[in-house]
Amino acid sequence: MLRTICKGKIHRAVVTEARLDYVGSITIDRSLMDAADIRPYEMVQVTNVSNASLWRTYAIPANAGSGTICLNGPPARLFQPTDLVIILSLCEVNDEEYNQIVSRVVHVDENNRITKIESHSLKELNESKE
Question: What is the number of domains present in the chain?
């Protein structure tokens, strides 16, 4: 059996741009991608805290330290500058792989600068319930 797990999260980032004329994707500051363990062209889920819209697309890196969070293409109609978003990186794992996952939660400020990174060992969380 495979389980879908959140392996990385950028929590409450601020949308800086929305470009309808672009082909698609979300452009994310490379330092945020690295901190959340999101690789270029990896599929991510983006939820708009302001209006509950949810979109899945692939991540492309912006310059590290730029603070960029830009929704490109169709989601530009659902996500606008200043909206708060939660970006999730998901993976599918079997029970053996589950115990090796360390999920990261990246907290940012109003300029999308990292304020805190939490690491959660799924093995430890699973064992603590027993």
Answer: 1
